Amino acid sequence: xxxxxxxxxxxxxxxxxxxxxxxxxxxxxxxxxxxxxxxxxxxxxxxxxxxxxxxxxxxxxxxxxxxxxxxxxxxxxxxxxxxxxxxxxxxxxxxxxxxxxxxxxxxxxxxxxxxxxxxxxxxxxxxxxxxxxxxxxxxxxxxxxxxxxxxxxxxxxxxxxxxxxxxxxxxxxxxxxxxxxxxxxxxxxxxxxxxxxxxxxxxxxxxxxxxxxxxxxxxxxxxxxxxxxxxxxxxxxxxxxxxxxxxxxxxxxxxxxxxxxxxxxxxxxxxxxxxxxxxxxxxxxxxxxxxxxxxxxxxxxxxxxxxxxxxxxxxxxxxxxxxxxxxxxxxxxxxxxxxxxxxxxxxxxxxxxxxxxxxxxxxxxxxxxxxxxxxxxxxxxxxxxxxxxxxxxxxxxxxxxxxxxxxxxxxxxxxxxxxxxxxxxxxxxxxxxxxxxxxxxxxxxxxxxxxxxxx
Length: 455
Fold this sequence. Notes:
Elements: E1 8-11, E2 20-26, H1 30-37, E3 38-40, E4 53-60, E5 63-73, E6 84-90, H2 93-105, E7 109-110, H3 115-122, H4 128-139, H5 143-153, H6 156-178, H7 188-209, H8 212-220, E8 222-228, H9 234-242, E9 260-266, E10 269-275, H10 285-300, E11 303-309, H11 316-323, E12 330-335, E13 352-355, H12 364-374, H13 389-410, H14 414-435, H15 441-448
Parallel strand pairs: 1-7, 8-10, 8-11, 11-12, 12-13
Antiparallel strand pairs: 1-2, 2-6, 3-4, 4-5, 5-6, 9-10
């Protein structure tokens, strides 16, 4: 089994041509490995102070490998809180691999994905929320997502979760003190105070839980599917939103026969825009498969932009489809408004509607505003405190047992206080899993498996 006492190494930069490449080494043998492979002016790396750097040449069995700059970090003042050496050599896949191979031959082992950050967590430099923020920052697809990740890395979410944890610990301690008394012996102010504090803690957990939706959008992006009958302007809408001719537009129905996906950043949130085949019954096998895929995409969508030709009356198929659509996940686009209006917004009062003439670019900005309102992209200021799916699971578990405990307290039964104490301990364990106060190997594997090697 791999151990934290091992010295690990990996390429820390992306593959491909670049100005430099970095090979990172961490562990107790980092400096001695640097001594073995580097030819430089005296003194060798192991005798140099923390924060220093030295120019030299990496050699392997007497053969030159690369010209490098070596950066030296000494424990505990490094990313992993271990001795760390970084070798900055020439960019390019082959150069970096040659340096890494030399380091491994000298005694290091290949790092696992995320193992450097995992060591930073295990050595107490960061908590688990901050470790996840590192991955979020690397994988961010917009400035807004990157800013949220930075604020989480700086401790914004950790502070809120820690406050929730500390409140639960204080409540559990006070409840356990009451177990030495009967209900009649406890002052009313004591029991009332516990009830009020538990209510406040439940409220705080609920506020954290409410940030999941924005966190999901920033981390995963929103799937926005464009649907409608053939030849209503679905592909024109995709092109208009993107500002480029991505999808083929033609008067002939059935031009789009497969899903076409592109990314759009709207208000700092990545959207996966999907253009689909026209929804209709058809004898064409290829088009029929496209319609099936369109319906599957609509089912998975965070938001459906359903396009109608406003110059034509609503077909029974469209009418049935719209009736079955969730008004919270749908915007109806009335296109071709320049050709006359056989449809009225008043006929669709339960749904968000936008009138457009997409071929002339009229109404596109209103579509974007409607998307922003429907996905709640505007006006959110969570300051880096947006939870992920992993966090949501634990907060929901904690919230469930807190609500159960609150109901037991209100029943004014002596025996219930024992159950309340147990429930609060369960809530504490769940919240502790979020920051890593309590964890197991499965939790760590789930967190760090999405990291790249070298981070």
